[in-house]
Structure formats: structure tokens, C-alpha cells
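Here is one chain, start to finish.
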Amino acid sequence: MKTLSILGSTGSIGRQTLDVTDWFADDLQIGALCANCDVELLSNQAHRYHPVLVAVADETKYKELKSLLRDTTCQVLAGREGIIAAATLDQADTVVAAISGVAGLLPVVEAIKKGKDIALANKEVLVAAGQIVIKMAQEAGVSILPVDSEHSAVFQCLGQEKGGLDSILLTASGGPFRRMSYEQMKSVKAKEALCHPTWQMGAKITIDCATLMNKGLEVIEAHMLFGVDYDRIRVVIHPQSVIHSMVQYVDGAILAQLGPADMRIPIQYALTYPQRQANPLQKIDFAQMGTLTFEKPDFDRFPCLRLAYEAGFLGKTFAAAMNAANEELVWAYLRDEINFHDIGYYIKKIMENHEPLEGSDLEEVYYVDRQSRIQVKELLDNG
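Its structure:
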């Protein structure tokens, strides 16, 4: 029996993780649940799964959550301390890191210090502080198992192969604006960007998919996870989202991982690895699949992807600065304060003005993160 702490249990990944635990109730149990502010859903989850600990990040929601769980034996906590307590719960074997943004970094770090394996669904952890986190995990002897469908696919394709890797091919659906011109995209509203053609996800990651920043973050994450140089990580637009990513070997062979566009499959793989078990999902029928197509990404129409590559090549704290700027700008776009192209425009401004640090410790990463957010707000206030 493996015990899970789910950080972000009310979000898309968290809810789907609970689906997986339902499938494998004899093998998986819940030790801790935590969420940002949705205490009603969080309390419903706690009543169903009976965790040891429940935490809400928003401290103003503590009394409400405490009242909702008054008929349980759950320990109820709030704020950063509550999230850290969930991440470091003694009973937990694996922490599902599904808190969006750089807010998920500290809980992952603390979980690693306590020897917890990490099922990582948060790209920003490795984008902002990948070298630090990977080194910590290696020194602690814990596993970081990717939950992203693309990195799970690469992980599976690499398998037990020893050497001979030529490149990683990350597939991308292309998002909802794949066929739009640059000029047409200027006027698209957030509600249009939130209509992803393939995946059902949270608001922030869905906007990132529309700008292709999500794929840029995945390029950096792949570099950190697999130790592959940026010039050997390529993005391929694959609108059908059947092939979740590929690896190419020096002899010309390409291995691809295919499956339905359902995040519960990579979640299950991360939680049950190295075993594979049957689940109730419908399998692919190749006779009914139709045509699979592939395109090159357009770096001119989607400059965020280019900026992510640049941040990766530049190293130091450029990725942390870019990531913080992107987070702030995505939320500004969701509030209709900026237009779609402003996201890439202002990220470029932040990167041009960034004075990089080595990024060798968390204090530097957090400093850069704070400064980038301040700079974004100043740029927006000044028009």
C-alpha cells in the first residue's frame, strides 16, 4: 500500500489523481490533501478519502474548512505551514506535486528533504530551480517521476536503453490558435484561449498552451529531467495528441508513446511505476484513428516558445525570471488587462533587462522571482 499526499487536490490533476486512487484502492491510499481555496470541494474529498491531514493555502478559509470537517478526525491546517506539513507527512511515500506555479517549489523541496518520492505535475518547479531540485533529489535518493504526458512519454520511451540517444521530440497540439495569423491572435480574448482543442486543464496552463509557452516550459523541464542539451530537444506540432512524445536514437530509430488524451494514464504510471496495471479507460482503436499529422512550430507567431528556448540556452536565472513574468502576465490576460500578444512582448522586456544570478540556491531563485513580478507590474502600470 502506497500512501499519497496530494498537493493541489481540487485542481484538474488532483481530481484525476483521486480517480486513479479509486481504480487502485488496494494499492493507493490518501494521507494528505491540500488546496488553495476551494474548501467545499476539499472537505468533500476529505470525507470520502479520510486523510490524516487536510490543508488550505488561503488562511482566511481555515475556519470554514475546520467547521466543514468538524465531524472527522482529520488534522486541519492552513497557510504555507499547512502545505509544508502535507508535503512532509510522515505516513506519505509519494507526494503528488500539482500546485500550479512557483508556489509549488518550496513544498517539493521540503518533501525531498524528508525522502519522499515526487510525482511531478508542476513544470515551474524545474523551470525556476531545476538544477537545485534535481541535485537535491539525487543526493536524497528519491525519484522524480514526471506526470506531464510529454515527459512521461519520454521517460517510458527511454526505458532501459543505454546510450545512443540523438534527440527528444516533444509533441504539442498547437493550441486553439494554431491556424490563426499573428494579426488575428491580437484580438483573441481569454475565453477563446481557454477552449483547448484536446485537453481539459486549469486556466493558467491552458493559456500557456495557447501561447505555446507551455511547450517552452516543457523544453526546459525535459532538459532538467533527462540531461539532454537544448539543441537536441525539438518541438513537433501534432494536433491529434495521440503521440505524446518521442525519442530518436543515433541509428535513426524513433520510439513513440501513444495513448488517449487522458492525463490519468501518465498519473497512473507515475504512481504505480514500475508496474503497469489495467484501468477502465477506453483503448486506442487504430482502425478508427484516422490520420496523424505533424508540423513545425512557428516561432514568429508564437514567440513565447522561442523565449523559453532562449532562457534555457542563457542559463543562470533567466528561466526563473521568464517563468515569473509569464505567470503574472497570464493572470493579467485572464483579467482582460492585456491582449494576447502582450504576454510575449513583456516577457521579452523582462528578459532583456534581467541581470542574472547563478541560481545556485533557493534564495537567489526567489529573489529573481519577486523582482520579475515587480517589474511586470511596473511595466503594466506604465503602459
